[in-house]
Amino acid sequence: MTIISIFIALGVPFMLLYGRKSNWYRTSLKQILFFGMLLIGLIGFYQSSTNDFRLFFYAILIIPIYILVDHAFKLMSTKMHKRDFYLWIRYSNEIDYTRAGMGKNKHIKPSDIVFSISLLILIVAMSTLGAVLFGNDSLYDKLIGN
User: If we measure between CA atoms, which residue out of 53, 64, 68 comes closest to residue 5?
Assistant: First the structure.
């Protein structure tokens, strides 16, 4: 269950991050993912009796949190630049990250870099927090208690 939780916590948000401007990532899919994962995650988290299951449902809750923050950044970028922010991450199709293309990304604003790095940090930090809290039974028990 732990491997599945790690895949959900890291894999799904990274897939959504890199596919944020793809044709398959429509508003209806975002809404279904947001409300579906939020409902499943909250109910499952509070009904779980072991930390292994809590980690699993916590990983599911990372998806709506990511979608919410991504949407907030999109709104801020639209207000500042009249466009969605460019994903400033290697292997994204929105920048030229090759050696020959260095310095050719003049369309990238500092806010694009901040939003991109912030989303990366959010995904990794939330996943790490879940692993630290629920990977060790005593830590969760000390902080929250049963």
Answer: 53
